[in-house]
Each structure stands twice: as structure tokens, then as C-alpha cells.
From TrEMBL:
Its EC number is 2.1.1.72. One of its GO terms (molecular function) is site-specific DNA-methyltransferase (adenine-specific) activity. InterPro entries: Ade_MeTrfase_dom_2, DNA_methylase_N6_adenine_CS, M_m6A_EcoRV, MeTrfase_D12, SAM-dependent_MTases_sf. Keywords: Methyltransferase, S-adenosyl-L-methionine, Transferase. Pfam families: MethyltransfD12. The keyword Cytoplasm does not apply. It comes from Alkalimonas mucilaginosa. It is an enzyme of class 2 (transferase). GO terms for biological process: methylation. It catalyses: a 2'-deoxyadenosine in DNA + S-adenosyl-L-methionine = an N(6)-methyl-2'-deoxyadenosine in DNA + S-adenosyl-L-homocysteine + H(+). This is Site-specific DNA-methyltransferase (adenine-specific).
Length: 274
């Protein structure tokens, strides 16, 4: 297997680029890969299925992918126009963030989503209770414009269908000839490390339990990534488990960016549904 990593065009907390090949080796063969939590799409980019069904509850993320898919050349050129020195100031960032939060133009919103992702602090995607993007300016010298990554992503989107929907709906609206990869918001490693609740609705213990039940009972293979904790080990009991460490870069303090313990659960030996 090739060791070349196809990187996503978005910076994404908890992104799977470093783990893509490890996860790809665990995913069973099928015609279609379903991702109910597609995020930045690292697994989509580093696997070779005939068809993909990509879903996420983040409407701005899915809208950006859809705009890129519909008119890739124009979209990439228009996105590049935002990556200029005059847009790399805190005041201009605030202006463009306000436009993003108020515009009804979905094409403009998608362009600004890429701008905000690259110019905001740490590439975070976070919303307040009103559903407005509220990450601060990143203060980077010269944010990178991912032209090649956008073009590669756009080309592969020809094999994908896109949906903004919950993971529950993603499970209940999929073909039989598929395998499912789930990368949900991770359970915290400690009571204070709750940075992985990205959607305004949150993703709590009840969601984690429900996802595990779906994976255990569904009649196609399901793979789930999460933190390796006592809770997840119990949650995924009955699945084939792999444990490993991965470097995380989400802490605001660079000295505290230690390796996180992860678990990869494969639910493959299914019984007939009742």
C-alpha cells in the first residue's frame, strides 16, 4: 500500500490524515464507503471505493463541499482571491467573519468558510449558541492556500454524494453494499478536555451509546474511531479493537500537545437483526 498521504484542504481538529492508512487497512472491502461524520475527509481521500456517501451535521462544511463539486475551477479561483495580505489582519478577519455569519449567499459562504478555516486560530470550527462562527483571528504570517488539495478533493467528489444530516439518518439511508466509517466527536480524556463538542447541539454520552448500538446491530461492517478510555473500551465491547497513540495538536499550549491514546473498533461479525 502506498504511504503517500492525500491531505484535506481544511485544517480540522481531530483530523485523520496521520491515521488514514491505518484506518484504511481495517476497513473491509465493499462497493461503497459511508461516512456519517466526514469532517475534513481524510479517509475519503485515502481510500479507493467505487462510491462514497459523505454526511455531516455541519451545514457549512457540506455546503462548501457541494459548491466545490458543482463548479470546481471557478470556486478554487474565487477562494484564492481571499488569500491576500490585506485580509490577514484582525479587523478584516472580523469583517469577513461577520459577512459569513449573515450572508444568505451559499457560494459566498463556502468561500468564506475556507478563508476562516485557514486564517482563524488553529483551524478550529466552533459556533456559539446562536449558530454563529466565533473563532478568533489566528495571527499567522502567511496562511497557506490549498490549491492542489482543493483540486484533488474536487476530482474525487465525482464519486461522492453529499448530505447534511445526523448520523442516525445516515445509518437509515444507505445501501446494503457498503461499509461504514464513523469518526464522531471524541469522548474527553478527562473531565476538562471537552474540546471535541463542535456542533452547537453537542454530542454527549447518550449519542456515543446510541452510535455504538447502531454499529453493533447493523448488518454491514462498521468501524469507529475514538479516544481509548475505560468508557469506550466498555462501549465497544464485542468489536475487534486496536489501540495506538497519536500526536494531537489541539491544545493552545504547545508544550502540552502530548500523544493521545486512541481506539479503533471494527464491528464486522454481525448477527441477523431481530
Amino acid at each position: 500500500m502506498s504511504t503517500v498521504i492525500n491531505r484535506p484542504f481544511l485544517k480540522w481538529a481531530g483530523g485523520k490524515a496521520k491515521l488514514a492508512h491505518r484506518i484504511a487497512q481495517v476497513l473491509p472491502k465493499a462497493r461503497c464507503l459511508v461516512e456519517p461524520f466526514v469532517g475534513a475527509g481524510s479517509i475519503f481521500l485515502n481510500t479507493d471505493y467505487e462510491h462514497y456517501i459523505l454526511s455531516d451535521i455541519n451545514r457549512d462544511l457540506i455546503n462548501t463541499y457541494q459548491q466545490l463539486k458543482d463548479q470546481p475551477k471557478a470556486f478554487i479561483a474565487d477562494a484564492a482571491a481571499f488569500f491576500v495580505p490585506e485580509n490577514n489582519t484582525d479587523s478584516r478577519f472580523r469583517e469577513l467573519k461577520e459577512i459569513f455569519n449573515t450572508t444568505g449567499d451559499q457560494y459566498e459562504k463556502a468561500l468564506l468558510f475556507i478563508y476562516l478555516n485557514r486564517f482563524c486560530f488553529n483551524g478550529l470550527c466552533r459556533y456559539n449558541k446562536s449558530g454563529q462562527f466565533n473563532v478568533s483571528f489566528g495571527k499567522y504570517k502567511a496562511p497557506y492556500f490549498p490549491a492542489d488539495e482543493l483540486a484533488f478533493f474536487a476530482n474525487k467528489l465525482s464519486r461522492a454524494e453529499l448530505h447534511c444530516r445526523s448520523f442516525e439518518k445516515a445509518f437509515y439511508q444507505m445501501p446494503d453494499d457498503c461499509v461504514i466509517y464513523c469518526d464522531p466527536p471524541y469522548v474527553p480524556l478527562s473531565e476538562t478536555a471537552n474540546f471535541t463538542s463542535y456542533s452547537s447541539d453537542g454530542f454527549g454520552v447518550a449519542h456515543q451509546r446510541y452510535l455504538a448500538r447502531l454499529a453493533s446491530n447493523w448488518q454491514v461492517p462498521v468501524v469507529i474511531s475514538n479516544h481509548n478510555t475505560q468508557f469506550t473500551r466498555q462501549l465497544y465491547k464485542g468489536a475487534e479493537l486496536q489501540f495506538f497513540d497519536v500526536q494531537r495538536s489541539i491544545s493552545t499550549n504547545g508544550e502540552k500537545r502530548e500523544k493521545a491514546k486512541e481506539v479503533l473498533a471494527l464491528f464486522a461479525d454481525k448477527q441477523e437483526a431481530a
